[in-house]
Automatic annotation (TrEMBL), chains A, B:
SUPFAM superfamilies for this protein: cAMP-binding domain-like, Winged helix' DNA-binding domain
Keyword Protein biosynthesis: no
Entry keyword set: DNA-binding, Transcription, Transcription regulation
Listed PROSITE patterns: HTH_CRP_2
Segments forming domain HTH crp-type: 147-213
Pfam families documented for this protein: cNMP_binding, HTH_Crp_2
The name this protein goes by in its record: CRP-like cAMP-binding protein
Gene3D superfamilies to which the protein is assigned, alphabetical: Jelly Rolls (2.60.120.10), Winged helix-like DNA-binding domain superfamily/Winged helix DNA-binding domain (1.10.10.10)
InterPro entries on file: cNMP-bd_dom, cNMP-bd_dom_sf, HTH_CRP, RmlC-like_jellyroll, WH-like_DNA-bd_sf, WH_DNA-bd_sf
DNA sequence: CTGTTTATGTCTGATACCGTACCGACTTGT
DNA sequence: ACAAGTCGGTACGGTATCAGACATAAACAG
């Protein structure tokens, strides 16, 4: 098997780290498929691997004691999981799982931990990513507090679109309703609203982005801040 | 002027760091008063000092382009500001300001930054605090999405109570309504509801915690998770 | 083709919360 | 003591969203 070439990977963090850093990681990286619902990390448990997604979308979900839950972050090939690795936390209270199937390079948790202790640049990059993710969850909090369902839905579609290859996003209303912590029929009506404005097209199990620019305009108050912050901290994606 | 003694400080992070770490910080620490509304950090600007509050409560607030805002984190003597310092972020998009006046030790941003680069233990402690704060904002997002105003208010009072000395918290309904991103009259009615259950007592400009245990019981689904996580990551407060 | 599952669309009534306005009560300054 | 400002209580109509149930429709499995 040939060695993994840095200029062939699609994960943004793997691309942006120095060639030296990548060189040290390379030997421990392993390619894996990530089917839908695959768990990348379980709440309050040490997780054996860190993942650098190459394709697909993962959700970070927080849960209350009574079982209410909502998504607080989205990870695609812009990031890695679990971000708490760089924060010395051991584990975190979230559930992280695949929402749109994909693939990733993974590396044993302890290996990556050891590497970042000796590589200040790499540590810095992942720390800045952790900050970008924290900002994402902060703006999710804001959005949950003040915005309407259709705007939050638009934000969510845009965030997934950013992390997808084409314009199609495969998932059900049921699933979306859990992510946004709203009723399933509310998702249906909100999608109809966006469809009525010709921003998206929606079929059984699929949402298709039809007019990205207009979608951004519609969501201008709810989408964009944390994306700007990501660019400042990490740099533009390919 | 005598040197600051570590066993006399009240800030939890300053107390919990090693004597060596504290020794290196000590020379740069400076005591300051923090009046209400004092800005500890401004959005998207480098901030000159890091603060370790000894008393009082600061809020981290995120704002949307149209000016909608909500609190995404609370900092008292359990923490420091800005937490993004340890994440190499330079600055962050939030506004951080005093909500209940107090005091703090402050240290030039660059000094602390330099110190944590050479002190792995100190870096680890502050990184874990950054994680604790991120968890706080994640649970705020959850709470904003699924809980009712009276529960969110109860959570908020508990979080402030944790960071206060007595049972009194001084602030106006107006202010609270901004923190929770609700109407001011909604705060009034929610407070009446908690008062009716004998959990608190409320006067012009003051909220008094009357029955902490019952308040926790009332807020059981909304308060507690991130507090547990703080204890795991940082350790019990004095 | 048929029955079963899964996903979506729709309805009805309830309710939590909003926007706005207004008024009284307390606080402060002169 | 009086005016001016601040803060809190209340009311009214409007609406976004909920809770739950039910009906269709597409996909799937035999």
């Amino acid at each position: 098997m040939g060695e993994i070439r840095q200029d062939m990977v699609r994960n943004n963090l793997l691309r942006l780290m120095s060639a030296d850093s990548f060189g040290r990681l390379r030997g421990d990286l392993e390619w894996v498929e990530l089917p839908r619902a695959f768990e990348l990390s379980r709440p309050n448990e040490a997780c054996p691997y860190a993942y650098f997604p190459e394709a697909g979308i993962a959700s970070i979900v927080a849960k209350s004691p009574e079982g209410q839950q909502t998504e607080i972050g989205v990870i695609g090939r812009d990031g890695m999981t679990p971000a708490s690795l760089v924060l010395d936390a051991g584990h975190d209270p979230y559930s992280i799982f695949m929402q749109v199937q994909g693939e990733a390079y993974r590396i044993p948790y302890a290996s990556l931990q050891a590497l970042i202790h000796e590589d200040r640049d790499l540590h810095g990059l992942l720390a800045r990513y952790a900050q970008a993710l924290a900002v994402q969850s902060a703006y999710t909090a804001l959005s949950n507090a003040v915005h309407h369902i259709d705007e939050r839905l638009a934000r969510w579609i845009l965030m997934c679109h950013d992390r997808s290859d084409g314009n199609e996003i495969s998932l059900t209303h049921e699933f979306l309703s859990i992510m946004l912590a709203v009723r399933r029929p509310s998702v249906t009506t909100a999608l109809h609203m966006l469809e009525g404005k010709k921003l998206i097209y929606s079929e059984r199990g699929v949402i298709i982005v039809r007019d990205r620019a207009a979608l951004e305009a519609f969501a201008h108050d709810v989408y964009g801040e944390c994306e700007k912050e990501y660019e400042r901290l990490i740099g533009t994606r390919p």
